[in-house]
Design goal:
alpha/beta; 6-stranded parallel sheet; 6 strands; single chain; Undecaprenyl pyrophosphate synthetase
Length: 262
């Protein structure tokens, strides 16, 4: 057995050991992911940034595979933020092209696995060809129920909240809604994530410990998991480690845990 085969076998054994530790009845139902570190991964290897994004897509497939195998029904990934529009135009073009390639390649797998593809964000800001492809796949997978993959594109949490407030204000102005009818449920109906449960677990890679304008309304009770691993290196074993860490948490949602009286 050569060095590469030994490394593969070692990873396989480690994965099996990690999976054996999972409590399948207490897995998160919704995982949100900030996929950070592609550029740094490429820089460490003296590669162009796009190489890090390409490798990041391979990591994404590993995570999606784990989610599908473990029957985790909802995954939301931060693919392109509102702030990302400030990047150089050349990098934006490459990222949009990579997105088109990925969606074209994965389109059939969405159908095979019965995955609903749900784009969220200010989609109208996407290039026309990307918007058309995103809209087509969202429409043709809308009835799939095995899993939902929400992809945040041109997304910003504050922008999402502002958009929701403007829609509510318009309803009030038109007389179809009174201010005292606005509650959390009514507000959430105007978010692009309406219909999805709030995330149980948020994973952020690359050592950063902030949420970067990602789902600020939705993650108020979400468990946060930060790792120094760069996104392209976040693969199957790293995903399982995050799930095992989640299962150690006590989720009280503001409640006091019950104590046994003596």
């Amino acid at each position: 057995m050569n060095e590469f085969e030994t490394a593969v076998e070692t990873r396989h054994i480690a994965e099996e050991e990690l999976r054996d530790q999972l409590e399948l009845e207490s897995l998160p139902q919704h995982i949100a992911i900030i996929m950070d570190g592609n550029g740094r991964w490429a820089a460490q290897r003296s590669l162009p940034r796009i190489a890090g994004h390409k490798e990041g897509l391979r990591a994404l497939q590993d995570v999606l595979d784990i989610g599908y195998e473990l029957n985790i029904p909802y995954l939301t990934i931060y693919a392109f933020s509102q702030e990302n529009w400030n990047r150089p135009e050349s990098e934006i073009r490459l990222l949009m092209g990579l997105l088109e390639q990925y969606l074209t390649k994965e389109r059939q797998r969405f159908h095979e696995r019965k995955v609903r593809f749900l784009p969220i964000g200010r989609l109208e800001q996407l290039p026309s060809s990307v918007l058309a492809l995103v809209s087509e796949i969202a429409d043709e997978t809308r009835h799939h129920t095995t899993q939902t993959l929400a992809v945040a594109l041109s997304y910003g949490g504050r922008a999402e909240i502002i958009d929701a407030v403007q829609q509510l204000a318009l309803e009030v102005q038109m007389g179809s809604l009174s201010p005292d009818q606005i509650d959390e449920d009514r507000f959430e109906q105007h978010l692009t994530t309406w219909g999805l449960p709030d995330p149980d677990l948020l994973i952020r890679t690359s050592g950063e410990t902030r949420i970067s304008n990602f789902l600020p309304w939705q993650i108020v009770y979400t468990e946060l998991y930060f790792t120094r691993t760069l996104w392209p290196d976040f693969r199957r074993c790293e995903t399982l480690l995050a799930l095992l860490d989640y299962q150690k948490r006590e989720r009280r949602f503001g409640r006091v845990p019950q104590t046994v009286s003596s």
